Amino acid sequence: MTLRIGFLASYNGSGMRAVVSAIDAGDLDAAPAIVISNNRDSQALLFARDRRLPHACINARRAGGEDAADADIAQTLLEAKADLVVLSGYMRRIGPRTLTAFSNRILNIHPSLLPQFGGQGMYGMRVHEAVIAAGAQESGATVHVVDDEYDHGRILAQARVPVLPGDTAETLRQRVAEQEGPLYVQVLQRIARGQLNLD
């Protein structure tokens, strides 16, 4: 069965782009169901428009509050018949309605080896700065199932990246980012092939 994937992205959506590229290349038996962003000017929505993928901008201001936005996101994903939801730099907490509608079906990628350097407030460059400040010898990327706690759900896969002498947060970020797209694709391939059960 071809996986139908809904994407949530706030900015560039680099993970989403890697997944769509794998679909286009025939490396992943999946189809983009919809791209949702909370940011109407996001590059992710521009990408979706250029590719003629279904897309929507949903945020609390437009919907009339966080609860309404959560309900709209859940309904939009259901109407798009998404089997899985893939977060790609989505900077909003997933609401309870969406979590319930897609229980164990929402995936995120985090730029560290969880459970280290995760949790509320740990995103983007803050993660890499914390890794450098801690003197850690390795970092990486983690694909995990999303639950109602930040960076907490079941870990599905990790890619390890050494922290090199002289690394800055930016050089580390670049090397970790190179692993994120391929890792996301690998996890989705295993799900599509029935090799990874999310239940």
Automatic annotation (TrEMBL):
Question: NCBIfam families from the xrefs?
Answer: PurN
Q: Which molecular-function annotations from GO does this UniProt entry contain?
A: phosphoribosylglycinamide formyltransferase activity
Q: Which family does it belong to?
A: Belongs to the GART family.
Q: Which reaction does it catalyse?
A: N(1)-(5-phospho-beta-D-ribosyl)glycinamide + (6R)-10-formyltetrahydrofolate = N(2)-formyl-N(1)-(5-phospho-beta-D-ribosyl)glycinamide + (6S)-5,6,7,8-tetrahydrofolate + H(+)
Name by which UniProt lists this protein:
Phosphoribosylglycinamide formyltransferase
What are the entry keywords?
Answer: Purine biosynthesis, Transferase
Q: Which CDD domains match?
A: FMT_core_GART
Enzyme class comes to transferase
Q: Supply the PANTHER family for this chain.
A: PHOSPHORIBOSYLGLYCINAMIDE FORMYLTRANSFERASE
Which Enzyme Commission number(s) are listed?
2.1.2.2
Annotated site (Raises pKa of active site His), which positions? Answer: D151
Q: Where is the active site?
A: H110 (proton donor)
Q: In which pathway does it act?
A: Purine metabolism; IMP biosynthesis via de novo pathway; N(2)-formyl-N(1)-(5-phospho-D-ribosyl)glycinamide from N(1)-(5-phospho-D-ribosyl)glycinamide (10-formyl THF route): step 1/1
Q: Some GO term, biological process aspect, for this entry: which one?
A: 'de novo' IMP biosynthetic process
Cellular component GO terms, alphabetically?
cytosol
The yes or no answer to whether the keyword Transferase is present is yes
Formyl transferase N-terminal domain location: 4-188
Gene that specifies this protein: purN
Q: InterPro entries from the xrefs?
A: Formyl_transf_N, Formyl_transf_N_sf, GART, GART_AS
What is the annotated role of this protein in its UniProt record? Catalyzes the transfer of a formyl group from 10-formyltetrahydrofolate to 5-phospho-ribosyl-glycinamide (GAR), producing 5-phospho-ribosyl-N-formylglycinamide (FGAR) and tetrahydrofolate.
A Pfam family found in this protein is Formyl_trans_N
Task: Name the residues that bind (6R)-10-formyltetrahydrofolate.
Answer: R62, N108
